Amino acid sequence: MVFAHRPATAFTALAATCAMVLSLASCASNADTHTNDGQTTITMSSTGAVALFTPSDGITLSQQTPLNKWAKLTPDLTASLADAGFKKDNITHTTSDSLDKQSRAIQDYVVSHLSDKGKTNDAGIVIEPENMTLLVAPVVEADASTRQYGDYVSQELRTTQDESGDDADTAANGSSNSSSAGSSSGSTSGSSDSKDSADAKDSTDPSESSDDASSDSSSDATDSADTADDTQAEAADRLVSSLKLAKESGMHVVLLGNSIEGYKPDAFVKFTDAQTIGKLQAEKVVSKLQLAKASKDNPKRIEVLLPYTPVKDGTSDDASDSASDDASGAVADTDESTFAQEAFRGIWQVLGAYYEKGVAESPSGTLDANTTEDDWHAVAYDASKEGSSAKVLATRLKSGTDSPTRVDAVIALNDYVASEVVSELKDLGYTGSAADINPQITISGIVGNIAGKKDLARQAVPDPIKSPENDTADQDAADDGAAKDEHDASSDKTDKARDSQWPLVTGYGAYISNIPSVVNGKQWMTGIANRKAIASDIADACVRLNTGKALSGMSSVRNGEVGGVAKVPIISEPPLAVSASNLKAALIDPGYITLADAGL
What we know:
It is a single chain. The protein contains 18 helices and 20 strands. It is an alpha/beta fold. The strands form six sheets. A seven-stranded mixed beta sheet has the order 4-3-6-8-10-19-18, with helices on both faces. A four-stranded parallel beta sheet has the order 13-11-15-16, sandwiched between helices. Strand 18 and strand 19 form a beta hairpin. Helix 2 (70-83) packs across helix 17, helix 5 packs antiparallel against helix 7 (206-248) and helix 11 (388-396) packs across helix 12. The protein starts with a helix and ends in a 12-residue tail after the last helix. Residues 157-234, 308-333, 461-498 are annotated as: Disordered. This is Periplasmic binding protein domain-containing protein. Residues 1-31 form the signal peptide. It comes from Bifidobacterium myosotis. Keywords: Signal.
């Protein structure tokens, strides 16, 4: 019996060996492999491996959260990588809640894989550095107003490294040390020159003791801030050094969303930026209001809200509130205001010509024909406090009559601001919805379209070339007596109805909490980065990089400047503009949201 089993045992062993070979061949599908002493090395025709490093989203209790979050991108990207041929075991993902932790994680990954170069994994397969791509979304601190647009808005990570070495770092530290040395020098001099006198004052003057305590507290805060800055600078330098080492070893580096000052990656993925967000909303307003057909006699009234978070410099809350109330007041140019400046630049590149022609105007008078792209501060305001946007809007649309101020559109920039605008417009007496601008389209028709029952053909409402005021003047000239009184009463009623008509309200971020407002027409449109299309583009780029193919063959790639470095391949897709008419196709069908999220 023992001998009888030997052929069967041998056959079983042979079958197992064949299965293992087929498995290895499958793992290295479409790859050139070299086998030596049982070790399989995958070469440049393999899809290889991808390591994804993203910031942590953190815990968000509020439903006022944009869909553009890193946690939302990861499953889309993982699925696209798998569709492109990457094996699940060759896709890794690491999240970090600080640049310090992220830079260490990337450093460990790079060093570990270079140390293991030539070694096999559990399946006996070697993936060379040339077949590895690092997808890195650098952790960059964003102010409160910038976070309202989501995680994908492009920002730049500043570093202390430069081409000549550590000079920039030394200069930065020298400047910081010089400043703090100057303040500590005075206190040291005073204590050393008259120590006995100071001791005497301490025993007799309580206010002096209080001042010392305050000084100590301020000094501690300064030291803490300096330590945090040093940690951030070290982390940035560590990240750059690790990525440079990765590229020098043959790995590929693709930056997602955020660039790094002075660093050139193999590719940069641009999801969106401030200028694109502003331009998108302005273009949609121009199209919806048909500004190309508007006249100076009946201009469209468009109000622009430009929220931003100013640098806290120790000014009182009263001063801050005062600045918020006066939207036309001076606003300092700071790093925190860069987003607002660029957003307004995008808006004005579209709207500027219409204001100049006189076919568009600002109800509040904050913008006019002489406004330029640099006049962003005219409509900027401190949005750091809840309710500040509603307060600014109420001030700008303040009416001296019992009728609301006529406004055709409010560009709110993001959905958080848009939600405040919608609430305030109700309080100010505006009625109807954006659907009323096209009377052929009813709310029930919009809901039917979203539910997939029918498609809507949107047609614009004819808009008079003459303003209602001029029509009234012409009629007054023809009427007299009782007929004129009757006409005046009817005209007043018509004017009030027109002035209280609900305006277009735009936003960005596709907040789940705002989707019902988009459905019912209170918020006319929102926007979102085309996440799924970009995920597919990233997967395609990873395959090309790992197999030695050029990115220039991708339709979504163009060369541009990134982090101050020219000729970097930039992967991008146009953002999605979402309104009630295309909400189903844009958000529900692709799986961004559910029917329940839309309130249906």
